[in-house]
Write a structure and sequence with these properties.
By secondary structure, the protein is α+β, with helices and mostly antiparallel strands. It has a single domain, classed as Nucleoside Triphosphate Pyrophosphohydrolase (Alpha-Beta Complex), CATH 3.90.79.10. About 20% of the residues lie in helices and about 30% in strands. The chain has four helices and twelve strands; from the N terminus they run H-E-E-E-E-E-H-E-E-E-E-H-E-E-E-H. Strands 1, 2, 5, 6, 7 and 8 form a six-stranded mixed beta sheet that branches. A three-stranded antiparallel beta sheet has the order 4-3-9, with no helix packed on it. It has a three-stranded antiparallel beta sheet with strand order 10-11-12. A hairpin with a 2-residue loop joins strand 10 and strand 11. The longest helix has 14 residues. It is globular. The two termini are about 15 Å apart.
Length: about 200
């Protein structure tokens, strides 16, 4: 079975049952207007790599107003008239120079609503390995490629209690080397892990 076939089968099987939207542990307050956004979970086609396929992620610049310095998937707010898939592809092109024609979209996963007022649709896709990337310095401080099997391993997910804006809650954290993936991005990964069951 090819990597694309495996990803597609796991995605389809895992999303066969409808789910209520996955929320960040700090749920949006009732009067919080939600802004539609999308991210691209781009899996690199490396079936024979010792660590398996990777997934492209970025570190946001420290000067950005929202989530400065954090690890994230390429993505952002939807423009008027855009679908989440269109927005995810556009943002990945703007942030990393990924040619949309090189992206094989597998599907859109569960919406993830955040306490900061975003309604995020994660879009799973596969890209060829070693695409020439052109990070936009205004939006990307650096990029990295953790193994997909690492980030989708529940044993690598830790949960931490915290307080945010006076409200108690918790957040996921995933470490890979010196890279700390946490908050919304780790929550999206944790939800996809439950859906796809990469490790069976």
């Amino acid at each position: 079975m090819t990597l694309l076939a495996r990803l597609t089968a796991l995605f389809k099987q895992g999303h066969a049952e409808p789910a209520s939207p996955a929320y960040e542990d700090w749920r949006p307050l009732p009067d919080t207007p939600l802004r539609a956004a999308a991210v691209l979970i781009a899996v690199t086609d490396r079936p024979n790599h010792p660590e398996g396929p990777g997934v492209l992620m970025i570190h946001r610049p420290s000067h950005m107003r929202a989530h400065p310095g954090q690890a994230a998937f390429p993505g952002g707010k939807l423009d008027a008239g855009e679908t989440p898939i269109e927005a995810a592809l556009r943002e990945a092109h703007e942030e990393l120079g990924i040619d949309p024609a090189k992206v094989h979209v597998i599907g859109a996963s569960d919406q993830y609503r955040t306490g900061t007022g975003y309604d995020i649709t994660p879009v799973l896709a596969m890209i060829p390995p070693d695409l020439p990337l052109q990070p936009n310095p205004a939006e990307v401080a650096a990029w990295f490629e953790p193994p997909l099997g690492h980030v989708l391993d529940p044993a690598k997910h830790t949960v931490h209690a915290a307080e945010w804006n006076g409200r108690a809650g918790s957040y996921y954290e995933i470490m890979w080397g010196e890279h700390r993936i946490w908050g919304v991005t780790a929550g999206i990964i944790a939800n996809l892990t439950k859906r796809m069951r990469w490790h069976g």
